[in-house]
Design a protein that fits this description.
Elements: E1 3-7, E2 10-13, E3 18-25, E4 35-40, E5 47-52, E6 58-60, E7 68-73, E8 78-83, E9 92-98, E10 113-114, E11 118-123
Parallel strand pairs: 2-11
Antiparallel strand pairs: 1-3, 3-8, 4-5, 4-9, 5-6, 7-8, 9-10, 9-11
Length: 124
């Protein structure tokens, strides 16, 4: 049973920074698997924020490019999302996700596993 647990959500003011982390355990998820961050703003659909695959290929949602950085600690099987220059429109529940594959699915497609989410609130 794959389990993903997110940490690091909270409330910050516009322009602030937060770092989210996600630990993966169980099943066959390890540092080789595609992992990603999604978010769901209140009343909106879930969207992919950033994804990272086995080969180090990274993709970002256009709205976060240059502000967010996805990275992975392969030793501890932990995924990170460094978020800088946060804006009120970044307010959302953020979800860690992992795929059974080593290459990330095409943009717009779901991954296989998701965590419970952590709330990030940006105040103006």
């Amino acid at each position: 049973q794959v389990k993903l647990v997110e940490y690091g959500g909270g409330s910050v003011q516009t322009g602030g920074s937060l770092t989210l982390s996600c630990t993966a355990s169980g099943g066959y998820i390890d540092s080789r698997n595609c992992m990603a961050w999604f978010r769901r703003p209140l009343g909106h659909k879930r969207e992919e924020v950033a994804a990272l695959d086995l080969d180090g290929n990274v993709r970002y949602h256009p709205s976060v490019k240059g502000r967010f950085t996805i990275s992975k600690d392969n030793t501890n099987n932990t995924l990170f999302l460094q978020m800088n220059d946060l804006k009120p429109e970044d307010t959302a529940t953020y979800y860690c996700a992992a795929d059974r594959g080593w290459t990330c699915p095409s943009l717009g497609l779901s991954l296989d596993y998701y965590g419970e989410g952590t709330l990030v609130t940006i105040s103006s």
